[in-house]
Amino acid sequence: MSISLTAAAADRVRTFLVRRGHGLGLRLGVKKTGCSGFAYVVNYADDLGKEDIVFEDQGVKVIVDKDSLDLIDGTQVDFVKQGLNEAFRFRNPNVKGECGCGESFTV
Q1: SS3 of 107, please?
Q2: Which of 36, 84, 94, 95 could bond to 104 as cystine, CB 3.0-4.6 Å?
Q3: SS3 label, residue 2
Q4: What kind of fold does domain 4-96 have according to CATH?
Q5: pLDDT tens for residues 22-35?
Q6: Looking at residue 85, what DSSP letter applies?
Q7: Rounded to whole angstroms, how far apart are CA atoms 6 and 13?
Q8: Can you give the pLDDT at residue 39?
């Protein structure tokens, strides 16, 4: 079981943690929503819950709750800038389909 980060994603998380002045790392999860069933939830982690699993890649901690891990195990998180837009992107090997807008996915 693992979650990995590209160099761009790791740099982005480190930069924002320094700007915030606190935080353990990146919290990654999923929620039921959208036209395809699930959407990614990305936030900064300030604490750990008893059901959290911690991965570390490139010096950055990625915290995932146990229930979400079944849906995103093996995911690589990237950070992409395209013109004025910038966002985290996910390469999830468990995804069977995505909605047309790219906001939700099925497994």
Answers
A1: coil
A2: 36
A3: coil
A4: Hypothetical Protein Aq_1857; Chain: A; (2.60.300)
A5: 999 999 999 987 66
A6: E
A7: 11
A8: 86
3-state secondary structure of 18: helix
Residue 15: strand, helix, or coil:
helix
Q: Is residue 78 within 8 Å of residue 11, measured between CB atoms?
A: no
Block residue for tokens 């480190």: 14
Q: What is the pTM of this model?
A: 0.85
State the greatest distance between any 2 C-alpha atoms of the chain, in Å, as a whole number. 40
More confident residue, 100 or 103: 103
Rounded CA-CA distance 21/35 in Å is: 37
Element (H, E) at 5: strand 4-5
**DSSP secondary structure code for residue 91 in this structure:** E
Q: How many CB atoms lie within 10 A of CB 38?
A: 21
